Amino acid sequence: MAQIIAGVSRTFNEFLLLPNRTSIDCSPDAIDLSTPLMRHVVGEASPIELRSPFTSAIMQSVSSPELAIALARNGGLTFLHHNQSIEEQVADVRQVKNFKAGFVVSDTNVRPDDSLAELARVMERTGHSTAAVTHDGSASGRLLGLVTSRDFHPQRHDLSDPVSGRMTPIENLPHAACDLTLSQANARLWDERLDCLPVLDVDGHLEYLVFRSDYTDNKRYPGQLVDRDKRLRVGAGINTHDYRERVPALLDAGVDVLCLDSSDGYSDWQSQALSWVKKHYPEIPVGGGNVVDGEAFTFLAEAGADFVKVGVGGGAICITRDQKGIGRGQASAVLDVVAARDIFAERTGHYVPVCSDGGLVHDYHVALALAMGADFVMMGRYFARFDQAPGAKLPTRDGFVKEHWGEGSNRAHNWQRYGQGGQALIFEEGVDGYVPYAGDLNEGLALTIAKIKATMVSCGATTLPKFRDTARLTLVSEQSLQESHANVVVRETPASLD
Ligand code: RVP
After folding, report:
1. Best of 60, 77, 318, 379 to mutate for ligand 1, by most ligand atoms within 8 A of CB?
2. Which positions are catalytic residues (predicted)?
3. Catalytic residue status for 318
4. Cα 383 from chain centre
5. What pLDDT score does 131 carry?
6. Cis geometry, peptide bond prior to residue 442 (ω within 30 degrees of 0)
7. Integer Cα distance of 196 and 97 in angstroms
8. How far apart, in whole angstroms, are the C-alpha atoms of residue 28 and residue 462?
């Protein structure tokens, strides 16, 4: 007989937080928003921690390389979408990994006996105007010199001449040892009026280049999410169809974390894919989902998922609940899964982080998701509104909108995400529309973070674990919801009331 789950399916809108006592040292500046991204032993740190608890949805209209760069610079993570060819997704990953965040691994390298024509070709391919001249033309070869686009001109120089004739040789080139910090590197760039400072290991092999042009930019983003080589981190969505080919290609491009992307992740397909990735590439973290209950969480955690994504049918553009009658209010789903996560951690000694995906309509909904125990959130509509998202920005009578479409819409036609049988979407599970344009991600996200920090201050917590451990939530009635909004006050200008 069918089982009826006790309790109704609730959304974030039905809850509010009660303020806790705020101590004097609990201020926005003291708040640490770092949070675990992947499975780890209880009591130890997660091998990858987000510096801020935001990830962007695995969607065509959301997760571009530009958005990935902006979000990682603000401490979060993008999962580049897989609703494109493997080659296209690999190129997206490379674009993020090659982004210059302080110390960069040189991608424009030549040998001293390469011709100037070859140098010009390499520069055109990478779009960079400074090349390292190494003994073997690799990014980690012995550094012999630097050559820039200012050192040669196709009309003035014979392009068949070797690079060695135009480079600044290492003897005349200021360089640094690899134990130097970014601020020391920046001090040298300014003190010695350099554009680029090569950083070498003890044997004179090139490790990094530090560019002056990155200086101001880097100061703006103290909490960037970077890997050991100081490159921005990036994730990628994968599916249960072509992972055997897609995963190795993404790894080769330097992806940091993968996430199986399905509208319903409680499936044997997903557990098979998780086992395959874990067997062949145990070093890469891979998340699973989406699920809406503790049973499904435990299934994926036991199958090896490094984090589990929660949410079915709550997305702004999602009509899965209308079409299939499948789903659960996002707050109920998160609460159920979080309880299973804690039981799993107690039983196995492994903490598997939980991501609340979709249905976050207001900034304070993020705070509620974190207070209810989610380790981080994933958002689509929210990020689709910014300049860095790929949707076109279009004028309307009242301002601007950005295009935003669901992965289950005919436009995205992501049959890999929606198991309707075969390579077709028989019916739509998402809509194709617009979201109000919201400008630059850096400014928008700063505002959201400021609100979350203010909520945490009111709740007397300076860390996310403390926030959820001490959170007191209350259900709201229709009437009290009305009371929450501005009322009684007239918002129109007097002139319009005439
Ligand atoms: P939202 O943040 O409310 O925009 O929700 C984003 C989430 O919606 C995605 O991360 C994904 O789980 C889900 N999604 C994406 N496309 C569709 C659809 O077409 N139904 N749903």
Report:
1. 318
2. 318, 417
3. yes
4. 11
5. 95
6. no
7. 19
8. 8
Distance 312 CA to ligand 1 centre (A): 8
Terminal Cα distance for the chain, rounded: 64
Contact between 54 and 71 (Cβ < 8 Å) = yes
CA 36 to CA 48: how far, in whole Å? 6
Whole-model pTM: value is: 0.81
Which residues, 6+ apart, have CB-to-CB distance to 235 below 8 Å?
A: 55, 77, 78, 79, 80, 255, 256, 257, 258, 259
Sign of CA dihedral 243, 246, 252, 253: negative
Question: What's the gap in Å between 413 CA and the centre of ligand 1?
Answer: 13
Query: Are the C-beta atoms of residues 248 and 274 closer than 8 Å to each other?
Result: no
Q: Taking a C-beta distance cutoff of 8 angstroms, is the pair 307, 38 a contact?
A: yes
Distance CA 338, CA 146 (A): 53
Q: Are 357 and 289 spatial neighbours (Cβ–Cβ below 8 Å)?
A: yes
Alpha carbon distance 165, 373 (integer Å): 62
DSSP string, 37-59: -S-EETTS--SSEESSSEEE-S-
Query: Could you read off the pLDDT of 427-473 as tens digits, one per residue?
Result: 889 999 999 999 999 999 999 999 999 999 999 999 999 999 999 99
CA–CA distance, 385 with 403 (Å, rounded to integer)? 8
- Out of 196, 259, 318, 355, the active site residue is 318
Alpha-carbon torsion, ordered 266, 268, 273, 276, to 10 deg:
130
Rounded Cα–Cα distance for residues 133 and 160 (Å): 16
| DSSP classification of residue 115 | B
